[in-house]
What we know:
This protein folds into 4 domains: 2-124, 3-Layer(aba) Sandwich (Rossmann fold); 156-272, Alpha-Beta Plaits; 279-368; 380-494, Arc Repressor Mutant, subunit A (Orthogonal Bundle). The chain contains 20 helices and 11 strands. The chain has helices at residues 11-24, 37-47, 63-73, 85-96, 109-139, 147-153, 213-224, 245-259, 287-294, 298-314, 319-335, 344-353, 357-368, 378-394, 402-408, 413-423, 428-446, 452-458, 464-475, 479-494, and strands at residues 2-7, 28-34, 51-55, 78-83, 101-104, 159-166, 181-182, 190-193, 198-204, 231-240, 266-269. The protein has a 6-stranded mixed beta sheet with strand order 7-8-9-6-10-11, sandwiched between helices. A hairpin with a 7-residue loop joins strand 7 (181-182) and strand 8 (190-193). The protein starts with a strand and ends with a helix. The relative contact order is 0.07.
Amino acid sequence: MYQVLVVDDEPASLKHICNIIRNRCPDFKVADTARNGQIALQKAEEEQPDVIISDVMMPLMNGIELVSEVKKRWPEILSVIVSGYSDFEYAKGAIQSGVCEYILKPVRPSDIEQLMESLRQRLDELYYEKRNSFLKKASGGTGNTGVQEIRRLFPEDLYYAAIYRKNGLPSRFSKGYSADLYSMPQEKIIIYGRDEMEALYLCPENLLNGESFVDYFAKVYARVKEEGAFYTAVVREEPFQPEGLPGILGELYRKLDESIVIGKDQIVTAGQSAGCPSLRPGQEDFSMLEYYVRKKSAHGIEGEIKRLFGKWEAEVRPQVWVEEKIHYLFGHLYSKGNLLEFNEFVLDDIFSEAVSMEEVAKNIQMLLIPGGELKTAGDRRKEEYEEILQYLDEHLGESISAQLICRQFAMSQTTLSKMFHKYGNSPFSVCLTRIRMEKARSIMNENPEILVKDAAERVGYTDQFYFSRVFHSALGISPSEYLEQQSGRSRSLDK
């Protein structure tokens, strides 16, 4: 509920406005009142209201002076001047400069209702952006939001939280390429993802209608699962007050990071003790592998990589553990001169795109075996890249993955990764999303009357709400709003 500070030196007028807000504006609450601008300024600092409604003519500090000072100190607070006809010329300068809105006396309930609905829409947008900013910072362990502000952003008494991720952890180098995903403003359950593969759910307790949150999220998990991918989910079983959210998010993300095991579907509880066997420190002996790399023995490299990855899979080693070992290995081999190239972008893509340990092992072999990646002339490689783009365009309505493209074009994932970084300036998955969104926009331009779910299916999304979040993240507008714009343009051209 948005907070309102009402300011007027006339008791009857003050009471009249407060009653209208209480009885006719359900999204607003009168947080406090004041009889002059000076007191109102003090209360604005204490209460941090969302809206100030003030009369013009008051002692000590008039309404224009008040809203001008509020605009300087707290630019996000919305101000409204209540003005009689005789005072309107005096207030017009502030109104025209955008410092405030205004209502003319005598104040009618319908005028207040109409104005407050307009302010509600502006506040909804403001809080939506602020909430998204908070989630982005909190997911990265940054930000220092106060308890009062968190309560404003998350107004319900109690929340539940859970997170799931498709495939591996986010690429360390994807920050400049992929966009964060946010639930749409009208969605009651708050959803956030650091990229398209992830969704954090924050569910108000009162939306569950007695259902267990664990049961609810199990249905979500079952619904989003796709073939050819693995999913890791972390669920917090107990509800919490919103001020505890920064700590809860840190707990969920840490648990997710330590729990992802490549190729393994799992739902874990946030409260489970860390330090499970798979995370225990382990010293790996890479001396035999280093020997085979130095001797350029393809057979030896293949056998040793197969042995290591088979051992790690049996020990249920999480991705972070395996990735750390492989990065150490490549760094060591490169420093000794046993590797001509150490491309961290490619290694990163191998882990973030992988769906099985066997697949990771094969791609690591390709990087270590001399001539493992067949060299192709630059012009031919560019042609292959263009052929892949054409294939994507013709098959966007189907399920597409890096693995499918590698099989279709008989190339390794390392080759695919290098190709898309070189010619597309981004990882394959990011490029695929970009192509899908551009195609979706083109479809909507040509068919303004199309249903969102139909547009989503034509570019490979079976969940229209998920598609809407990706579309909004990529283009800054929801699909329904975009279609409305296109439909309006189409009608204007027909006239």
